[in-house]
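Quick one, tokens below:
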């Protein structure tokens, strides 16, 4: 076995470790988010969709799907549920007759404001012992990993 074989094996082992850690972190973060967001009556999906809508007046379902990196069926199911719960309204797009524009209701905006406060505390809790430079380094590295994943699909 030469040095390039050893280097490749190390890269593979590290890649598996990164994959495993990301999977565990994602699962744990989702469980915590579900528990915390349930206190204000939002699911993590609804929270992310409302955050994506923000103050924009022209977000379509396709825009949301791309922004959240989820399948059309996932977004459609979530939108139906959020409409039923009085969190969003759909309106015809003035630009494209086939598309609908999504708008958050005032009730949803209030829930989002409360959820943002809860999730800010959660973000602080999970990065508690990390210096700001370390946090920025993790963000930079994870963005690189995300880019690698996105370019493979």
């Amino acid at each position: 076995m030469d040095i390039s074989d050893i280097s490749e094996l190390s890269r593979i082992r590290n890649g598996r470790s990164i994959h495993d850690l990301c999977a565990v972190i994602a699962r744990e973060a989702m469980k915590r988010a579900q528990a915390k967001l349930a206190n204000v009556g939002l699911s993590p999906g609804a929270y992310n969709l409302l955050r994506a809508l923000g103050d924009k007046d022209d977000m379509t379902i396709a825009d949301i799907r791309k922004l959240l990196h989820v399948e059309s069926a996932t977004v459609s199911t979530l939108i139906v549920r959020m409409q039923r719960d009085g969190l969003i309204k759909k309106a015809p797009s003035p630009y494209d007759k086939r598309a609908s524009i999504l708008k958050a209701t005032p009730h949803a905006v209030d829930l989002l404001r409360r959820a943002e406060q809860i999730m800010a505390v959660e973000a602080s809790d999970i990065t508690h012992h990390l210096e700001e430079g370390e946090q920025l380094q993790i963000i930079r590295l994870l963005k690189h990993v995300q880019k690698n994943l996105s370019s493979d699909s």
